[in-house]
Specification:
Blueprint: E1 5-9, H1 13-24, E2 29-33, H2 39-56, E3 62-65, E4 76-79, H3 95-112, E5 117-120, H4 125-136, E6 143-145, H5 148-163, E7 170-171, E8 174-175, E9 183-184, E10 190-191, E11 194-195, H6 202-223, H7 230-244, E12 249-258, E13 264-275, E14 278-282, H8 289-307
Parallel strand pairs: 1-2, 1-4, 2-3, 4-5, 5-6
Antiparallel strand pairs: 7-10, 8-9, 10-11, 12-13, 13-14
Helix pairs in contact: 1-2, 1-7, 3-4, 4-8, 5-6
The chain binds adenosine-5-diphosphoribose.
């Protein structure tokens, strides 16, 4: 069987960790695309990863390039091209600069690998995924954004931390935009099927919600010169594996809503079934009046951001 082909656009922090993790999992051959002026350091990283293969006994190829011809047969494309936030910046502050980058990447992907499954990670992600889909014209099942997978991981972490129980037994989800209006869904969060509302008091729950929302910013402030990359890459890996393995996993992702949750024509974090068909389905769960109001608020924030793109 021919090996799968994973393309990563942008070989910075997230891109290089995806190259590493994909290799460790032997998911397929990895090609990283970056700008001509930055491709040599990226080439250094892919060669370094190539040289660790003997230590883990993995047979895949890795390369770095600035030529999109080299990813013409990609099965999956992860878009990390763009700039990350620095302290005192919101994800929205990246919009102008990253929009031009993502539009350019979308044109290239449309031309060179229009059949690939695309995962957009560049922020502000709901708007960047929207722009990518608009410019590329690819169907909605092929283009999703990294949001809920990362935010849900953080939500799981804080629940496990607060209860002192295993992260493995936490099941929960974050919906909405990938920003301060995101919605960690308390009502459906469980530990081994036990609602967390029966295990934690309101103050603890409020604390978990606040920390989930602020986790990305906390890391930006600590790093000083970029944003989270290990957990972002790990979240993207879950999405890649769900697609390549046709796992039908339910992963909250930024997806183009076409009437789901009353939202039409915008990307927003919703529960997505990811399998061989890419985004196979958006699951619509019944929300309470309070949750619906929160969803409206987060959707409004995304709509405002999208309007600034002029797309
Ligand atoms: N084409 C290809 N690569 C590009 C382009 C472009 N037009 N523009 C920038 N890049 C590359 C940069 O050269 C750099 O190698 O994208 C890479 C970005 O890497 P980092 O600056 O390390 O950023 P990273 O932490 O990986 O985050 C990337 O994902 O989560 C989001 O907010 C984050 O928008 C940011 C993106």
């Amino acid at each position: 069987m021919q090996r799968k082909k994973i393309a990563v656009i942008g070989g910075g922090q997230i891109g290089s960790i995806i190259a590493l993790m994909s290799t460790q999992k032997e998911l397929g051959d990895v090609t990283v695309v970056d700008l001509p002026q930055n491709v040599n350091p990226v080439r250094g990283k892919t060669q370094d990863i190539d040289h660790l293969r003997p230590h883990i006994g993995v047979d895949v190829t890795l390369c770095a390039t600035c030529d999109y011809e080299d990813i013409s047969c990609a099965d999956v494309v992860v878009v990390t091209a763009g700039v990350p936030r620095k302290p005192n910046m919101s994800r929205e502050d990246l919009l102008d600069i990253n929009l031009e980058i993502v539009k350019g990447v979308a044109e290239q992907i449309k031309c060179h690998c229009p059949d690939a499954f695309i995962i957009v990670a560049t922020n502000p992600v709901d708007t960047m995924a929207y722009a990518f889909q608009k410019v590329s014209g690819l169907p909605r099942n092929q283009v999703v954004g990294l949001s809920g997978a990362l935010d849900t991981g953080r939500f799981q972490h804080f629940i496990a931390d607060e209860t002192g129980l295993s992260v493995k037994d936490v099941s929960c989800m974050v919906m909405g935009g990938h920003g301060p209006t995101m919605m960690p869904l308390i009502r459906t969060a469980t530990i081994a099927g036990i609602p967390i509302t029966t295990l934690l008091n309101q103050e603890q729950i409020d604390n978990i919600v606040r920390r989930t929302r602020e986790a990305g910013t906390e890391i930006v402030n600590l790093l000083g010169n970029g944003s989270a990359y290990f957990s972002s890459a790990a979240s993207i890996m879950e999405m890649i594996e769900a697609y390549l393995g046709d796992k039908k996993r339910v992963i909250s992702s930024s997806a183009l809503c076409q009437g789901e949750y009353g939202i039409d024509g915008y990307y927003l974090g919703v529960p997505c079934v990811i399998g061989a068909g890419g985004l196979e389905r958006i699951l619509e769960i019944e929300l309470t009046a309070e949750e619906n109001a929160a969803l409206q608020k987060t959707a409004d924030a995304v709509v405002q951001s999208v309007r600034q793109t002029g797309l």
